[in-house]
Amino acid sequence: MSTAGTLIEKPGMVTTLGLLTLINGILNIVFGLVVTAMIVLGTFFVGIICAPVTALPAVLGIFEILYALKLLANPPRPVRASRTIAILEICAILAGNVMSMVVGIVALVFYSDPAVKAHFARINAPAA
Question: pTM of this prediction?
């Protein structure tokens, strides 16, 4: 950290978390759209009734990408640790998305690390 306080160094875990969340968000969008298309086309459009349920991973993917871009921003933008997104990633196992579950568990473990907690506290501290 510089003497002026303008440069905030990110722990490696925060960068890793941002990259994992970004990649998982992209995969969730693709996964959600592919599963939805397969169900709708495989049932000769009768499965369109299920489309809102099968598209949920794609919606989660959009939120993941937006959050990851905030985490990876340089200089860091104020952002809180999003345990909600991590929990929703774990819940994506209900849609059969194992990768998302793994990323959610890793995210929760990283959020409990003291260096990551200190980083989030530092970037969210009110300016003096």
Answer: 0.86
